[in-house]
């Protein structure tokens, strides 16, 4: 089973529901069984209002409704809108509409206590939190962008919540070592280019149970990210865990 | 026949991967189904005078039919003409790395090299970037080669065959749209079915796309899958996988 834990629709030039067909053709081509949609996170800039966040999540819900057997929703949340609004959004998405995870991006750095009510909700609902993180030599992409060290801080505060740190490709070895002591942090395989050696380094330092396949589709493609997994010298067991078994466990999905 | 126009041997000091010897590169490419590869020396990127690295490259690659040596020339060195004279008769192409050897494509020395290669009909591979600038070592930032400079070079030397290695999709489209001759490799193209989208929107470009992996910095499979799974005709995929490169190299 292959699960893409990190994709976005609608996004960029792919905004019509018909564009989903291309995503699904691509997924079929690579034998990807399920795709987790994190929403059109940058549609309204770094800091969307509660109303804009709801609009973004409604688009995800619409896509899920069209392909329920394939698409899984992650509820996009902006911690800056306040605890009440954020928790209302999570309740709407997860308790009432079948989303299975929470997505946090760059509006608030994850060291902020503004995340605490959201993580508390995640713990109560038993859902994973996918959080953007990056080390960028050219400078942070957003003023409050979180780094892997920030993710480690969040993991300390909420050791019972499964955190998926996005973008192994941007974590670099430094980021891998920073999250290594925190067993509740996994890392997805997306980010940057297919740099040889990084995936093997992550498996060596974290163990294959702490990596999940994610692409950041449509910014990256299955070719680039699966190419890393198929080319890296991993065992079949390790590959199977990363491609889908770890994500299935987090998302409580039944085997096909 | 599958041809990879962008490979190298040696050690990339910022990579988590180990150094790749010619034997290892040849074996990895064979496993991936790549029949021929244009191969340079990574050491030559970091040495001001790459001559010894080129010597070693040609010596080592004699044992590996799969790997065609491509010397890296530094046109800032006064001896570049001698280097070209030595390597050109035995090389499939010449590569330059302007950002690492710290010169602009607009300089007089590049003009001389371009004129020489246009005369000898040897392709010029221009390494636009080796890495995503966002993940470079913080103290060692190397900017990409501006595509405007490649376009200017192509316009000035219409008989010169230029391959831009390591362009992002937007840079690739600029080059392909604005010059009828520049070719690009797929190593840094990304986004949903990047190769398929490029070919569907700009069908005329298909003849100027080449398989290039940026191995050993990148995984070969990522480049191969971009082409092999592109939503395009089989003829287009086969052209990008090898026919275009063979035509360029006169193989």
Concise summary:
With 256 residues, chain A is α/β, with parallel strands linked by helices. Helix content of chain A is 43%, strand content 12%.
Number of strands of chain B: 8
Q: What is the radius of gyration of chain B? A: 17 Å
Question: Spans of chain B with pLDDT under 50 lasting ≥5 residues?
Answer: none
Number of strands of chain A: 8
Query: Mind telling me which CATH architecture of chain B this is?
Result: Alpha-Beta Barrel
The CATH topology of chain A comes to: TIM Barrel
Major sheet: arrangement of strands of chain B: 4-5-6-7-8
Q: Output the number of helix runs of chain A.
A: 9
The helix/strand series of chain A, from N terminus to C terminus, equals EHEHEHEHEHEHEHEHH
Largest sheet of chain A: 8 strands, parallel
Q: How many domains of chain A?
A: 1
Alpha-carbon Rg of chain A, integer:
17 Å
Strand content of chain B: 5-15%
Report on the biggest sheet of chain B: 5 strands, parallel
Biggest interface, chains and residues, is: A-B, 40 and 35 residues
**Mean pLDDT rating of chain A:** 97
Determine the number of helices of chain B (DSSP H or I, runs of at least 4 residues): 11
Range of strand content of chain A: 5-15%
Task: Using the coordinates above, name the CATH class of chain B.
Answer: Alpha Beta
Write structural notes for this entry.
The complex is a heterodimer of chains A (256) and B (251). The longest helix of chain A has 17 residues, at 50-66. In chain A, 43% of the residues lie in helices and 12% in strands. By secondary structure, chain A is α/β, with parallel strands linked by helices. Chain A contains nine helices and eight strands. The termini of chain A are close together. Chain A has a single domain, classed as TIM Barrel (Alpha-Beta Barrel), CATH 3.20.20. Chain A has helices at residues 20-29, 50-66, 83-97, 116-125, 148-157, 168-179, 198-206, 222-231, 236-251, and strands at residues 3-7, 34-37, 71-76, 101-104, 129-131, 163-165, 185-188, 211-212. By secondary structure, chain B is α/β, with parallel strands linked by helices. Chain B has one domain (3-249): Metal-dependent hydrolases (TIM Barrel). Chain B is built from eleven helices and eight strands. A five-stranded parallel sheet of chain B has the order 4-5-6-7-8. In chain B, strands 1-2-3 form a three-stranded parallel sheet. In chain B, helix 7 packs parallel to helix 8. The radius of gyration of chain B is 17 Å and the shape is globular. The model of chain B has no long low-confidence stretch (mean pLDDT 96).
């Amino acid at each position: 089973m292959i699960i893409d834990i990190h994709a976005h629709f609608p996004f960029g030039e792919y905004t019509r529901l018909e564009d989903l067909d291309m995503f699904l053709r691509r997924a079929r081509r690579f034998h990807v069984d399920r795709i987790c949609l994190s929403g059109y996170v940058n549609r309204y800039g770094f800091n969307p209002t509660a109303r804009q966040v709801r609009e973004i999540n409604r688009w995800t819900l619409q896509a899920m409704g069209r392909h329920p057997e394939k698409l899984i929703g992650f509820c996009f949340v902006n911690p800056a809108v306040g605890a009440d609004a954020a928790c209302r959004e999570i309740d709407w998405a997860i308790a009432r509409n079948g989303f299975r995870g929470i997505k946090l991006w760059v509006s608030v750095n994850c060291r902020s206590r503004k995340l605490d009510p959201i993580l508390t909700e995640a713990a109560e609902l038993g859902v994973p939190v996918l959080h953007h993180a990056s080390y960028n030599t050219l400078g942070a992409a957003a003023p409050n962008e979180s780094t892997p060290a920030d993710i480690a801080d969040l993991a300390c505060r909420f050791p019972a919540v499964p955190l998926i740190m996005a973008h192994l490709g941007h974590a670099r070895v430094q980021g891998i070592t920073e999250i290594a002591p925190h067993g509740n942090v996994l890392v997805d395989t997306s980010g940057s280019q297919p740099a040889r050696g990084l995936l093997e380094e992550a498996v060596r330092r974290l163990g294959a149970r702490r990596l999940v396949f994610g692409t950041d589709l449509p910014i990256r493609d299955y070719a680039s990210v699966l190419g890393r997994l198929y080319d890296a010298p991993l065992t079949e067991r390790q590959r199977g865990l990363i491609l889908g078994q770890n994500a299935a466990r987090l998302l409580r999905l039944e085997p096909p | 026949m599958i041809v990879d126009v962008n490979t190298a041997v040696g050690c990339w000091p910022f990579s988590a991967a180990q150094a790749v010897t010619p034997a290892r590169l040849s074996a990895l490419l064979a496993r991936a189904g790549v029949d021929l590869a244009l191969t340079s020396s990574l050491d030559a990127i970091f040495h001001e005078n790459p001559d010894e690295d080129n010597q070693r490259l040609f010596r080592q690659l004699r044992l590996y039919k799969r790997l065609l040596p491509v010397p890296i020339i530094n046109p800032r060195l006064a001896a570049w003409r001698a280097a070209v004279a030595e390597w050109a008769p035995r090389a499939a192409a010449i590569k330059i790395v302007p950002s690492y050897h710290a010169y602009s494509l607009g300089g007089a020395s590049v003009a001389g090299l371009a004129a020489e290669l246009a005369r000898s009909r040897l392709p010029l591979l221009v390494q636009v970037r080796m890495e995503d600038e966002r993940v470079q070592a913080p103290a060692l930032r190397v900017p990409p080669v501006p595509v405007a400079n490649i376009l200017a070079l192509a316009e000035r030397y219409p008989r010169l065959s230029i391959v831009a290695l390591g362009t992002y999709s937007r840079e690739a489209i600029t080059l392909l749209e604005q010059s009828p001759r520049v070719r690009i490799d797929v190593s840094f193209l990304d986004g949903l079915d990047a190769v398929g989208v490029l070919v569907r929107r700009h069908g005329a470009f298909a003849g100027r796309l080449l398989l290039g992996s940026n191995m050993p910095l990148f995984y070969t499979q990522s480049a191969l899958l971009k082409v092999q799974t592109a939503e395009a005709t089989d003829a287009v995929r086969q052209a990008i996988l090898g026919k275009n490169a063979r035509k360029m190299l006169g193989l």
